[in-house]
Amino acid sequence: MSVKDIYVIGDEKRMVVRSFINDLKSAQLIVHFLPAEYESVSTLPKESIHIAVCFDDTMPADVMECLREGSTDKGWYLYLIGKIGGLSMNDKKHSSGIPGVRFPYWPVPAKTLIAEIEKTRKDILVVDDDPMMLRSLYNWLNDNYNIHAANSGHAALEFLHMNDVDLVLLDYEMPMMNGRQVLEQIRTSYDKKNLPVIFLTAKNDRETIKSIVGLHPNGYILKSNSAEEIKRAVTSFFSSQISVAVN
C-alpha cells in the first residue's frame, strides 16, 4: 500500500474510536488524530490527504462544512464512519452532501479502510494528438494514478473497448475524430455511457467554452493551467464523489 498516513477526526474518549486507531496503527499506518473541532480541522494540510471521520451524537456544523470544502478545494479523501445523531433536518441534509466513502456501521476493520484507500489510485485514459501534451500529463499525474495514453479518437475508442478506466481526459480539438465525436461514441455505448469524461482545451474563448459545456461533460480543464492546477482538478473530481462501503 502506497498511502502510509491517515488523519482521524473524532472523540478519542470513545472506546470504539480508540480501538479503531489502534487497529490502524497495527496495520502500519501513521495515525494523526484531531478532535472534531473547527480550530483543529482547519489546520489540516491543504493538499490531497486521507481522512477518517468518526461520527457520533455530535458533529459541529462548521467542521462538516470544512470537510466538504476540503474535499472539493483541496482534494481530501474522506472516509465517513458511523452516523450522526441529534442533528436538525438541515444539518442532516448538509452532512449527507459531504463527499466521500461512507461506512454506516461500526466497527470498521483497518483492512477494510485500507482496501478503500487503495481504490483511490484510479485509472485515467489521456487522449491527445500532441505527444508533448501526452508526455506532460503522464509525468504530472503518474505518481498518483495509473495513466494510459491514446493519440487519437479512434485509438481511444479501441482502448476503451478492451479496458475499463475511471476517467477520460479528452482533447476537445483533434484531427480525424474530435473530442465531441469521441464523447458521443462513449455516451451511446451500453457499458461506457456513464464513464466520466473531462475535456482538455487550449482555447478559453466564450464560444469554445459554451460549446464544451453544452456537451455536458464532467468538466473541462484548460491546457494552459499549471501542472499543480491540473493535478488539483483531477484530484478534486475523484474526491468529490460519494460512495457507500459494503459491510
Explained architecture:
With 247 residues, the protein is of the alpha/beta class. The chain contains ten helices and eleven strands. The strands form two sheets. A six-stranded parallel beta sheet has the order 2-1-3-4-5-11, covered by helices on one side. A five-stranded parallel beta sheet has the order 7-6-8-9-10, with helices on both faces. Helix 7 packs parallel to helix 8. The longest helix is centred in the first third of the chain and has 13 residues. About 2% of the residues have low confidence.
At a glance:
40% of the residues lie in helices and 21% in strands. The chain contains 10 helices and 11 strands. α6 crosses α10 and α7 packs parallel to α8 (179-187).
Q: How would you classify the quaternary structure?
A: single chain
Which stretches are poorly predicted, pLDDT < 50 over at least 5 residues? 86-91
- Report the order of strands and helices: EHEHEHEHEHEHEHEHEHEHE
Main beta sheet strand tally, sense and closure: 6 strands, parallel
| E-strand count | 11
Q: What would the average pLDDT be, to the nearest integer?
A: 88
- Derived from helix and strand composition plus strand pairing, the structural class reads alpha/beta
Q: Alpha-carbon distance between the termini?
A: 21 Å
- Provide a count of the helices: 10
The shape, in one word, is elongated
